[in-house]
Design a protein that fits this description.
Length: 144
Amino acid sequence: MRSRYIRLIMIVIGALALGCTPKEESAPEREVAAPAAAEVAEVAEVAVADPKAEAIEIYENRCTVCHGKLGKGDGEGSAALDPKPRDFTLAEWQESVTDEHIQKIIVYGGIAVGKSATMPANPDLDAKPEVVKEIVVYVRNLAK
Ligand code: HEC
C-alpha cells in the first residue's frame, strides 16, 4: 500500500519534470530578448546633479595625467607616449573636430575614431551624456 503511494508520487514528479522540459526548450527564445533589454538598461541615463562639476572633476582625475592641467598635452604621463596626447590649446585642432567627435573619443577611446589606443575609453560615461557634453565644453574652453 505504502510503496504504491510512493510510486504514485514518483510518477507525478516524473510527469511534472517532463512537463517542464518544453518550457526549458523555449528558454533560448527569451534569452535572445534579454540582452536587448540589458542594452537598453546599460545606456539608460544616470541623473547627475551637477554635470559641470562632475566634468571638471573627471578632467582633473582622468585626463590631466596625459593632456595636462591646461590641456597642452604635457601631463606627467605624456613623456613616454607616441603619439603625444592632443594639445587642446591649438585653435586649428579645435576647428578641425566636431563636438560629436570629441564625445565619441571620450566615451569609446582612440580606437573608435581611428586614433591611438593609448587614448583610453571611459565606458561608464556612456550613461552620462550631460557630463560628457560638459567635458567637451571644458576641452573647448582650454583653447580660449
Ligand atoms: C593615457 C593617456 C591619456 C589619457 C588618460 C587621456 N588621453 Fe586623450 N589622448 C591621448 C593620446 C595619446 C591622444 C592622441 C591620439 C592620437 O593622436 O592618435 C589623445 C587624444 C585625445 C583627443 C583628440 C582626438 C582627436 O581626434 O584629435 C581628445 C579630444 C582627448 N584625447 C580627450 C581626452 C579626455 C577628455 C580625457 C579624459 C577623460 C583623455 N583624453 C584622457 C592620451 C590620453
